[in-house]
Amino acid sequence: MKLIQSATELQKLLDIDRAEGKTIGFVPTMGALHQGHISLVRLAQKSCDVVVVSIYVNPLQFGPEEDFEKYPRTLNQDQELLEANGVQYLFAPTVEEIYPNGTEITQRAGVVGSTFEGASRPGHFDGMLTVVNRLMEIVQPNAVVFGEKDAQQVFIVKKLIGARFRDCEFIEGPTLREESGLALSSRNRFLRQEERSDAESIYHHLSQMKTQLEAGAAVSEVIAEHTKAIETAAKAKLEYLAVIDPQLFRPVDDKHRGPAKIIVAAKVGEVRLIDNLNVKAING
Fold first, then answer.
1. Could you give the 3-state DSSP secondary structure of residue 274?
2. Residue 171 Cα to chain centre, angstroms
3. Which one of 54, 87, 95, 129 has the fewest CB atoms closer than 10 angstroms to its CB?
4. What are the φ/ψ torsions at residue 147 (nearest 5 degrees)?
């Protein structure tokens, strides 16, 4: 595996691979890698001949009160993990390499980008789209892989890929979970031992909601019940708990028919966690 910091160098190497008829798969990350990321690498390997993984903690998608400085940076461990799993290129650029003309927003997420995660983290999705667009321009992959745990990110990035990189296949990887159900996340390492059970209980509430909704319970009643339960029993500070239409990423009401997605963001102690669960059908 080659560790590369220069966009120009990476592009030259990928041009050689393309000239040999190889397809390029791309997995963009912010590092602090775990088995959830490796599952995305596996999907890229199934789809393409060569895999590029990027590690870049993007300052544009962190707000002034967020954890940009504290976000875990574990490049040496990440490099070993990727090499052990057959990745050809690790792209770990500097800020100057990604933003040679300065850190300005070039992409806008629109109305959807101002709801849920966007409401909790203003400007987050504009910054995220800006770096994804830049990375896609550098790598020019045949396929790009994102994890479904970041549901709103997936929804927004999929639209960017469809509009600007139409020859690229968008692959969505399923969420990997611990045995307890807690979704794998780079931030889980910050949970104190006494906070883990509270974090784990959030997934159990999502599972109960899924069961209730698929059995015909009213959306409004299910949300109200579990909002109270998560904030009391789980001792979590909820930012949002909603049931949305996955085609529109908008909240549904009690009249909704068909597939849906439960989404949640909550802070357990000082750790902010997000998760989601698909619902096969409501009132189906």
1. strand
2. 12
3. 95
4. -90, 140
- Per-residue pLDDT tens digits for 198-234: 999 999 999 999 999 999 999 999 999 999 999 887 7
3-state SS class at 167: coil
Given 37, 124, 205, 256, the catalytic residue: 37
Residue 41's DSSP bridge partners are: none
Measuring CA to CA, which residue among 78, 4, 74 is closest to residue 35? 78
Give residue 176's identity as a one-letter amino acid code.
L
Scanning the chain, the segments in alpha helix (DSSP H) are 7-19, 35-47, 75-84, 95-98, 117-120, 124-139, 151-164, 193-214, 219-232
Structural domains in the chain, sorted by start: 2-173 (3.40.50.620), 186-277 (3.30.1300.10)
Sheet of 143-147: strand order equals: 2-4, 89-91, 50-55, 24-29, 143-147, 169-173
Per-residue pLDDT tens over the stretch 130-180: 999 999 999 999 999 999 999 999 999 999 999 999 999 999 999 999 999
Q: Which residue has 């045995």 as its token pair?
A: 179
226 belongs to the catalytic site:
no
Q: Name the token pair of 14.
A: 């990928």
Greater confidence (57 vs 138) lies with 138
Confidence check: pLDDT of 275 > 90: yes
Rounded CA separation 164/244 (Å): 26
